[in-house]
């Protein structure tokens, strides 16, 4: 598989659990994501261990701070050899431009993307924090700002993938968590789609955690999802 579409979210409480899972995955078939829990508990060492195993690692720390701080954090993340990292688009254009400058723009530079609205966010939470208009318009606006600030793509719900593709082009990367195979538990996710629906809507990469990691047989769950994408 030359460009695996599945990114397995290694949301584990320690490096041992994450690496045990990773050791069952072929890096040519899936990429992996290190998020806040695993990174806070296990630090850069777990990222290094995954990179050394040949994985494309998405470091999902959603940096959101003043431009100088975010730029330095992004440079540090790039030094870890990650494939992809992210900032939060609500940090604004100056912050995102500083982040892009820090990671560089060569073929070796990591992909830099911006989180728009979290896939766990529903309309009630959107209203609660005082955002105006529709959620889709807000995601499109934030993603447009990200593109204009030099970012390579965004994290969004697959429900927004089609309008984003139409407005921002085919190459602007759409990374979509909130993926739930038919019949699986949504948990705290609100804006969800099945793997098949998400790719059909225009997602470039699918971030999938609990439907795989919380399954009784994680590798079978991953295989079932891969098969569902071949149909
Ligand atoms: O909007 C967002 C941004 C990031 N995430 C992360 O993706 C995974 C999803 O895990 P599931 O278990 O499949 O729900 C998780 O690590 C989140 O931190 C997101 O869900 N939504």
From TrEMBL:
GO CC, any one term: cytosol
Please provide the Gene Ontology terms (biological process) for this protein.
'de novo' pyrimidine nucleobase biosynthetic process; 'de novo' UMP biosynthetic process
Q: Name one GO molecular function term.
A: orotidine-5'-phosphate decarboxylase activity
Cite the Pfam families for this sequence.
OMPdecase
Coiled-coil spans are none
Q: How does it assemble?
A: Homodimer.
Q: What does this protein do?
A: Catalyzes the decarboxylation of orotidine 5'-monophosphate (OMP) to uridine 5'-monophosphate (UMP).
What's the name of the protein? Orotidine 5'-phosphate decarboxylase
Write down the species.
Answer: Methylophaga thiooxydans DMS010
What gene is behind this protein? pyrF
């Amino acid at each position: 598989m030359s460009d695996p579409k599945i990114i397995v979210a290694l949301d584990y409480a320690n490096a041992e659990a994450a690496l045990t899972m990773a050791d069952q995955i072929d890096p040519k078939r899936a990429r992996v994501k290190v998020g806040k829990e695993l990174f806070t508990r296990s630090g850069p060492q777990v990222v290094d261990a995954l990179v050394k195993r040949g994985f494309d690692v998405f470091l999902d720390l959603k940096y959101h701070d003043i431009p100088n701080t975010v730029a330095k954090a992004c440079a540090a993340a790039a030094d870890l050899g990650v494939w992809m990292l992210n900032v939060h688009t609500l940090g604004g254009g100056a912050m995102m431009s500083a982040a892009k400058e820090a990671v560089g723009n060569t073929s070796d530079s990591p992909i830099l993307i911006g989180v728009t609205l979290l896939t766990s966010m529903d309309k009630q939470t959107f209203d609660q924090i005082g955002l105006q208009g529709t959620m889709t318009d807000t995601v499109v606006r934030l993603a447009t700002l990200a593109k204009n600030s030099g970012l390579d793509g965004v994290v969004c719900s697959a429900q927004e993938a089609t309008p984003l593709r139409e407005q921002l082009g085919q190459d602007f990367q759409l990374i979509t968590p909130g993926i739930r195979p038919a019949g699986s538990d949504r948990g705290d996710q609100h804006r969800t789609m099945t793997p098949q629906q998400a790719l059909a809507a225009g997602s470039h990469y699918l971030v999938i955690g609990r439907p795989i990691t919380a399954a009784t047989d994680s590798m079978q769950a991953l295989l079932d999802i891969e098969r569902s994408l071949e149909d």
